[in-house]
Amino acid sequence: MLESGAADVAPALDLSIPDSELSPSDVSRRGFLRGAGLLGAGAAASVLAVPSGAEAAAAGEHSHGPAGGGTEKGGFTWLAGDHHIHTQYSSDGQYRAVDQAKNGRAYGLNWLVITDHGSNAHAKIGVDKVNPDILATRAELKDLLTFQGLEWNIPAAEHATVFVHPGKNEVAVLKQFEQTYDGSQLPVTNTDAQNEAAAIAGIKFLGQQVRHRKVEGALFLANHPARRGIDSPHEIRNWRDADPTVAIGFEGAPGHQAAGIKAPNGRGGARGYYDNNPSAASYAGYPLESYRTWGGFDWMTATVGGLWDSLLAEGRAWWITVNSDSHVNYLDQSVRGPGSDFELNGRYNDPVYGGGALNTTAGDFWPGYYGRTNVGATSFSYKAVMDGLRAGRVWVDHGRLIKNLDARVRVVGDRRAATGTPLGGVLQVKRGTSTELTLEIDLQDLPNWAHFIPVLKRVDVITGSVTGPVADKDTFKAPDTKVVKSFEVTPGTKKFTVTYSLGRLDQPFYLRLRGTDGNRTQPGLMGAAVDPSGPQLDVIGDADPWADLWFYTNPIWVLPK
Q1: In whole angstroms, what is the distance from residue 131 CA to residue 134 CA?
Q2: What are phi and psi of 345, to 5 degrees?
Q3: Cα–Cα distance between 480 and 462 in angstroms, integer?
Q4: Among residues of the chain, what percentage have pLDDT more than 90?
Q5: Which residue, 58, 133, 184, 368, shows the most beta carbons closer than 10 Å to its own?
Q6: How is residue 48 annotated by DSSP?
Q7: Residues in Cβ contact with 348 at an 8 Å cutoff, skipping those fewer than 6 apart
Q8: pLDDT, averaged across the chain
Q9: What angle separates helix 233-242 from helix 192-211, to the nearest 10 degrees?
Q10: Is the peptide bond before 264 cis (omega within 30 degrees of 0)?
Q11: SS3 assignment for 190-251
Q12: Which is nearest to 365 in space by CA: 80, 71, 159, 82?
């Protein structure tokens, strides 16, 4: 069995190492990968990277808080987090770092990332100035893991979260990265090709900082990828291929979910601020439906057989997350600090709390209030969170639809406790071997932050063939992917448990899961035969996020030996 999560690419996958310098086992492994069409151009590098025993043991060695936090399930500690949060150091932000952190902790988060905006003002002084606030937050809230990052203006594309493991060089690495590779700092005369190359160079720079031991880890996650249509399929593939240990995924659902609440009680806009239309900078191949959310999720994720599935069908480890993108929050009564000069100081003055009326036009929720990225970690530590994210041990939900889940694929008949391959992993078996999915979901029995108990009504099993690298990097369809089984959840039960046969392995495939409260569904964009009851297209001006809840998991692969 192979499982992802290595901090570095395994020797067999590093094509800079000639066959003559590999061990016999790595030569054999490289031969298998070549024969399966899963080696070359970065294909499946982090999916098939195997952590050594030393790497697995090191996952909990760098704890920056007490052992604890999160919930135990399936042999992992599940730590809820949010990787996209703004403060007074963003030109459109408002709150102190500690405000966001305390609210995130109060709403059930175990980790979060402060990601202030890249801009001229931020690039000059923002990374330096926010760091003391983050250090103070870490000292005060020892039961919360607070990362420092930034929101990168990706050259030629949208935005991304970039963050690093805490340490003495975190400021230096982030500052050098932003000043060198942020789109706001590049020549306006750059061509698209030059900007795309700069984005690739930026991701490679982050990987180099890890390998040179400047920081212990660095991660990249593309934010709101379909919002403006400018993250083309080939760019996404190129980011991931630049360094699969750094570029690991994108937002499956954007923040700004409160923006869809109907006026006059809310903004009356679009969930995620997904209210755009194609522009000259957009990728021309995307359909008009891609500029809207579906059940609150990005079109790239919500479409069964769509762009995300096209990456998974190649064997690419590419994960999804959700977050708040919190700037100014719904129903908050604070106001931005008076007398602020952001351009001069790189920050706004501290907010005045209770200084205004209830803000019904804000589009954001506090971190943890609505969306959660749940990471299967081996300990309560910064490194364990980053390792869990990199390994794809992640499921996401809105509105606390469920409490927890454990999903695994195993060989039929293997009844050992906690056996099987978890989310993000790769199960490797002989052709003809029968495999099965085991799924256990702890159903919600406590009110969420909107004061009702969500009810899970249906769980979908989605599978797709692994066909290897595509010839056209702008491919965004996976024609073999579809919903193969749907389970109705019995009302009033506390736990949903199922074992589902996946049949005898003939060709390599992957599996992912999705669940819903069943309030708003429609056939998917690829047709009812592919997705009979997927999420509905969200209506601008009338899209109550609390009335339309979903969870998604990251995939598990099953490959032949």
Answers
A1: 5
A2: -100, -10
A3: 10
A4: 82
A5: 368
A6: S
A7: 88, 93, 94, 336, 337, 340, 342
A8: 90
A9: 30
A10: yes
A11: CCHHHHHHHHHHHHHHHHHHHHCCCCCCEEEEEECCCCCCCCCHHHHHHHHHHCCCCEEEEE
A12: 82
Phi and psi at residue 77, in whole multiples of 5°? Answer: -95, 115
Annotate 142-189 with three-state secondary structure. CCCEEEEEEEEECCCCCEEEEEECCCCCHHHHHHHHHHHHCHHHCCCC
Q: Is 100 left (phi over 0), alpha (psi -120 to 50) or beta?
A: alpha
Average pLDDT over residues 375-403: 98
N-term to C-term CA, the chain: 9
Residue in the block written with tokens 């403006």: 228
pLDDT classification of 32: cutoffs 50, 70, 90:
very low
Mean per-residue pLDDT, 144-171: 97
pLDDT number for residue 58: 32
For 345, counting Cβ atoms within 10 Å of its Cβ (0-12 exposed, 13-18 middle, 19+ buried), the class is middle
Tokens representing 333 are 């009564």
| The pair of three-digit structure tokens given for residue 551, joined into one six-digit string | 């969870």
CB 334 within 8 A of CB 355: yes
At which residue do the structure tokens 């420092």 appear? 148
Write the CB contacts of 31 (distance below 8 Å, at least 6 apart in sequence). none
Q: Can you give the pTM of this predicted structure? A: 0.89
φ/ψ of residue 365, rounded to 5: -110, 160
Per the CB < 8 A criterion, the answer to whether 343 and 274 are in contact is no
Query: What angle, rounded to 10 degrees, do the helices at 192-211 and 170-181 form?
Result: 170
Task: Name the residue with higher pLDDT: 189 or 64.
Answer: 189
Among 557, 551, 559, 561, which residue's Cα sits nearest to residue 253?
551
Strongest mean pLDDT among 25-29, 43-47, 416-420: 416-420
Widest distance between CA atoms in the chain:
71
Edge-first strand listing for the sheet containing 402-411? 402-411, 434-443, 495-504
Q: What does the block give as tokens for 557?
A: 């692969």
Which SS3 state, helix, strand or coil, does residue 62 take?
coil
Which of 105-114, 120-129, 176-185, 230-239 has the lowest average pLDDT? 120-129
Tokens read off for 274: 């997904």
